[in-house]
Amino acid sequence: MKFSTFYFSGTGNTRWAVETFNAIITAKGHQADLFSIDLGEKLTDERILEIVQEADCIGLGTPIYGGDLPPIMKGFIERLSKILEPVQTEKKAFVINTFGYVNAFGPKEMKKRLTGSGLALSAYVNIQLCNNVNTTAPVDVGMLNKRMTQGKEELTELADCLLAGKKQIKGRGPQTLIGAMIRKKTPEAVARHYQTLGVHSETCTRCMICVNNCPTGSIQFDEEEGFTFLPGCTACMRCYNFCPTGAITMGGVYADPDEVPRYQGPVE
């Protein structure tokens, strides 16, 4: 079988999950490909259609922000549905979500978003890792390793079910009710996130890593005006967590990386 997964990863959790899944599938003698939906990858509509038509099963890998999908993944699913609707492609689909605190986005919500795409949701899992929001304490490595081990087990179970043609829908439960309430406030908070971002001029080296790595191209730099953060921001925290000097500020506050460690994803 051939599995093709479209994914978005802010600071590494989802990338780790989909890469782990692909490694499991490959070890079982099947083909697995990954496609980042970052703007810089420049996936054309024609290429997306080709990827779907050539695969036996389509995956979506995404983090969950406040009980909801990040804007970049919402936009991609809408685009995918428009691309696939005219050709009436029918494929099995699976979803790999990652989250830090509460698993509050369920398969029912994802099914709604896939309506009209021709993708039938046959498997859905949520993998808990660590939150990528700024913290005053270092990552608990022991807890992260434990969650990664559990994640590998769940991803192996997912692979086995898909290869056997069995459904595996997880993520139902009372936490999705919490998600319904959180989701009402999340879009507004995410939409305003870019307004909270800034640059600490004393520590910024103008390396342009934040500009080049922004998945939505929402950070611009001009020699006269400096850095500008745009509404297209998907609130992924990538610029904040991967700035070499920790120069990205939130709410006008500079957080010394020696005092406020940045989370840069799971490390094997």
Provide structural commentary:
This protein is an alpha/beta fold. The protein has two domains: 2-176, Rossmann fold, CATH 3.40.50; 186-250, 2-Layer Sandwich (Alpha-Beta Plaits). It is built from eight helices and ten strands. It has helices spanning 13-27, 45-54, 71-84, 107-114, 141-164, 175-196, 209-213, 238-242; strands at residues 2-7, 31-36, 57-63, 91-99, 119-128, 168-169, 197-199, 219-222, 226-229, 248-250. The strands form three sheets. Strands 2-1-3-4-5-6 form a six-stranded parallel sheet, with helices on both faces. Strand 8 and strand 9 (226-229) form a beta hairpin. Helix 1 crosses helix 5. The longest helix is centred in the middle third of the chain and has 24 residues, at 141-164. It starts with a strand and ends in an 18-residue tail after the last strand. 40% of the residues are buried. The mean pLDDT is 92. It comes from Acetobacterium paludosum. This is 4Fe-4S dicluster domain-containing protein. Residues 3-163 form the Flavodoxin-like domain.
